[in-house]
């Protein structure tokens, strides 16, 4: 479990090392062909530095005899998410993204998360405590931010709410992010922001649940214990390249990223099990509407 860019750099390095081994080249020979110093190859293969887009293309040209078109697409996509700003990747490599304007406010881990969310094809999430950020109303987002970050000056609260709302643009993109969310019933009953704020949030959930790109289900109290009790998580999947899928686990002071095949399989299986125990989408919508009327 590592922070986003670091684990991506390491995965990229492992793939490039495997390709070099298949060519029969030493790191020094590969560096000489690329016109680099051998230490640069070592830093890349050990994940200690990112790779500029032009560098990854040059390396793949060096290893061309053992690289399939599919592998090339995968590694170029992986390098885009693995490289840090100093290496020409990350925010700098993708061009100026909207969250760049909040760089002084948002920690790198949150910017990494937003970047993954913005480039993903789909997201599967389980939430136990609060409505997912992509589905929050402004008033609810403000109440959650104040509760989670007590004592924060109002201008910073305003900015964080703006970020939360800006993230929701992925649901209106072309194509939109496909979101499958399972909410514990506690999410719907916890009075965040007071009855008025909660009623508006529940009505909003009922509206977004009707979007074709959103599948919203509620895990009722009657289920009892379930796999999701170990904590909330998000699984991001990316266009055409399953090997880039990633699980994100949020903690109080950091986010952890899981990309090993066995971890992805375990969390995907857990999501399917939790989803199977949840109410069907229509029954979930009916429950949400009932709670909104009673709020």
From TrEMBL:
What's the protein called, per UniProt? Answer: Helix-turn-helix domain-containing protein
Question: Which residues are listed as membrane-spanning?
Answer: none
Question: Which CDD domains does this entry report, sorted A to Z?
Answer: HTH_XRE
HTH cro/C1-type domain residues: 16-72
Q: Which domain of life is it from?
A: Bacteria
Annotated coiled-coil positions are none
Database matches in InterPro entries: Cro/C1-type_HTH, DUF5753, Lambda_DNA-bd_dom_sf
């Amino acid at each position: 479990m590592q922070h986003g860019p670091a684990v991506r750099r390491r995965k990229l390095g492992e793939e490039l090392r495997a390709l070099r081994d298949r060519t029969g080249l030493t790191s020094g020979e590969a560096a000489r062909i690329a016109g680099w110093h051998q230490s640069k190859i070592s830093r890349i293969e050990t994940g200690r530095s990112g790779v500029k887009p032009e560098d990854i293309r040059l390396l793949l040209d060096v290893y061309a005899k053992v690289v399939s078109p599919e592998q090339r697409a995968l590694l170029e996509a992986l390098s885009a998410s693995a490289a840090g700003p100093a290496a020409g990747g990350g925010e700098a490599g993708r061009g100026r993204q909207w969250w760049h304007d909040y760089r002084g406010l948002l920690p790198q881990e949150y910017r990494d998360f937003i970047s993954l969310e913005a480039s993903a094809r789909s997201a599967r999430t389980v939430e136990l405590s609060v409505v997912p950020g992509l589905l929050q109303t402004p008033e609810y987002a403000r109440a959650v931010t104040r509760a989670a970050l007590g004592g924060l000056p109002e201008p910073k609260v305003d900015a964080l709410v703006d970020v939360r709302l800006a993230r929701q643009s992925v649901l209106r993109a072309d194509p939109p992010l496909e979101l499958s969310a399972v909410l514990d019933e506690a999410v719907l009953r916890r009075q965040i922001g007071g009855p008025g704020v909660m009623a508006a949030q529940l009505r909003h959930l009922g509206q977004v649940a009707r979007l074709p790109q959103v599948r919203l289900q509620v895990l009722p109290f009657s289920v009892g214990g379930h796999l999701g009790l170990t904590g909330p998580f998000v699984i991001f999947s990316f266009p055409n390249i399953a090997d880039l899928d990633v699980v994100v686990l949020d903690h109080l002071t950091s986010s952890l990223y899981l990309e090993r095949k066995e971890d992805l399989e375990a969390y995907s299986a857990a999501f399917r099990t939790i989803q199977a125990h949840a109410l069907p989408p229509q029954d979930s919508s009916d429950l949400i509407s009932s709670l909104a009327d009673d709020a």
